[in-house]
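User: My advisor, Dr. K., asked me to get a structural model of this assembly before our group meeting. I'm new to this, so sorry if the format is off. These are the inputs:
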Amino acid sequence: MQQDLNRLRSKLKNEQKVGVDRNGTLSTSDPGNDGSRPSANGNTTVEPKRFFHGTV
Amino acid sequence: MDKYIFTLEVIAEMLGECLGSGNDDENGGVLAGPKSNPYLVTNIIPSSSYAERAPATYFQNEQDVNFINGELRRLQAMGKDFIGYYHRHPSGLDRLSQGDLGTCHDILTSPNYAINNRLLMVIVTKGRAKMPIYGYNVSLTGEQVMVKSVKIKAMPGKCIKACFEGIDINHI
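Assistant: The format is fine. Below is the predicted structure of the whole assembly, which you can bring to the meeting.
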């Protein structure tokens, strides 16, 4: 199937970005942000984390 | 099933990092992409030499995380941010381990991760699939960790930049 990506891009570019809450409901803002951070999603700061390869 | 597009450059670097070490130690790092489209993965930040690697576990310690956050700040200045993690399973396990699920829960409940209750976890291992990369979308429903398989497609970075940035690719 062929698609004109330029046309598709201009059509979809103006769509509003949405967030999703823990129940899967779409919302226009980040439900995880109480407003104390500067933007809708803020920026991530990663923390020390451990990963595993089995049931350890 | 959700679909993510990775740049070929990310795929190549991830495979080289995880499978090219020549030993059986776990390894991994962070995946990042444009904030305007959380389904595009355009950058990779492999763990530094400070990370603690072993055959059964891999730990991004404080020093390693300092390095990763430094790289993340550079990407954030360009409108990109953290999307998820990748790590290798030398054992061949192509899904998230029980320990990984606990780590996912910690991430999803931490206020330091601005990921809108959607965490991409990628496992690199030699399994049954054509590409040894397995992607999972992880979220929290109440206190329960929900894991869903995702499709991973690869495209050259320049094509992604030209075509998809700012577009929800799941609408295509």
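One thing worth pointing out at the meeting: Chain A has one helix and three strands.

User: Perfect, thanks a lot.
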